[in-house]
Amino acid sequence: MIDQSRIRTIRQGEPKAGPVIYWMSRDQRAHDNWALLHAQGIARRTRQPLAVVFCLVPHFLDAAIRQYGFMVRGLEEVESALRRKNIPLILLFGDPIKEIPRSVTTHHAGHLVTDFNPLRISRSWKERIAARIDIPFDEVDTHNIVPCWEASSKLEFGAYTIRPKIKRLLSRFLTEIPPLRSEKHNWKESFPPIDWKGARASLQVDSRVAEVEWIRPGEAAARKTLHSFISNHLKQFAEWRNDPTQEALSNLSPYLHFGQISPQRVALEVRKRKQPHAAIDAFLEEHIVRRELSDNFCFYNPAYDSFEGFPAWAQKTLNEHRKDKREYIYALEQFELARTHDPLWNAAQTQMITTGKMHGFMRMYWAKKILEWTSSPEEALAVTIYLNDRYELDGRDPNGYVGAAWSIGGVHDQAWGERPVFGKVRYMNFAGCKRKFDVDAYIQRYTADRHLRGDGQPAKGDLCHTRRSSGS
Ligand SMILES: Cc1cc2nc3c(=O)[nH]c(=O)nc-3n(C[C@H](O)[C@H](O)[C@H](O)COP(=O)(O)OP(=O)(O)OC[C@H]3O[C@@H](n4cnc5c(N)ncnc54)[C@H](O)[C@@H]3O)c2cc1C
Questions:
Q1: Whose Cα sits closest to atom 2 in ligand 1?
Q2: Cα of 222 to ligand 1 centre, how many Å?
């Protein structure tokens, strides 16, 4: 059922008699989840009960109530879907390094399974958990269509080097995903339903970055958004995806980030739509090649979020231009409050603060201007990552670290004509944007003064400026 190369052993050992636990982390869904299916397969073979645990950590990489709220509401739906299959969801609170081994001991588990995430924090959790348990522990890549370690065994230079590798393996991995089956063992009765209200009340995260209303979390809303995109917007994707005044993007990134929809399911559904080819190819290039390239970068480059992670040519050229005079220098607070001299940049920042999702094209311009208007590339990268992780619903993601490193440090890009501050890193400017789309319309839509209060928070009632997903 499951291609065995999706599975990596984190800790070996003879399986013990005892329940199988799937520690759900990056892939927060009941359906189309290879990690859950793998755990279910072991439980059936060994005739043991199956449970899913989720560990709610008090702090995660600058995430605020906006992202936690989206995640917790999605988990509520996961619990209901699992209950219908007789599988309990157990919610743990605190540090996974302590809570997962504790749960293994409490439930006398015989096998632990988790999902794959290339980020440092997740890898360190897994290593430390493996050292504290004495049962087999597997990791399943259910986020990449081609498992990250199968697509490539090394850091790739760019889309042009990983694309042929992924394409060669697509027919093997882009297959139909079997449904989750009902468990016979009615273990869920031992666990009372989760008190979600209490769980939300226990969160100690920053509540100043408010939840947004235009997008509804959860697996059902994710599927509706996908189908609405396929029916209404996919055909314009190739032509309009770089125009932030158009509604051509899928809006799937928040769902993909929290694993509320399977990337494999998205690709399968998009491929079913036979026309127009250019739109399908353009979408799958972003959704498969670019997205999976980001996991490759974070998996094989431990410095994925620092200057040292940039390619040698980019480090050299940025070093040569360190002392260049900057026309404008802004502090973090000025960026955060969208108070630069550039109305286009301010509009992009406002779109992110008010909706939690800046248009993809604007993200490139936005990050490149942060390089231009800070004292060093290190500061630019830190500001970009901080703002991205704090305000974007899809932040704290390999795509985000790679997006920042592409914009500021030439990652997955090539050298361009040399100019001040940027050196040979690709440059973008206002005039270029003006040639591509109606910048005045975009600025008008997200005028900072109209949308942000003095403290940078959205003015009341200003959260619904983008297309409501069909799931809302
Ligand atoms: C500075 C900067 C920061 C970014 N931060 C994030 C982030 O935090 N989280 C995030 O998911 N993406 C990030 N991106 C990549 C991209 O902008 C978003 O994935 C995209 O805008 C999400 O909107 P969508 O789902 O409507 O996109 P669509 O265009 O409909 O694309 C569908 C999916 O393809 C993938 N994709 C699209 N563009 C890219 C890309 N350039 N690189 C990798 N995957 C891509 C995403 O998973 C996306 O959800 C960033 C890019 C830059 C330049």
A1: 403
A2: 16
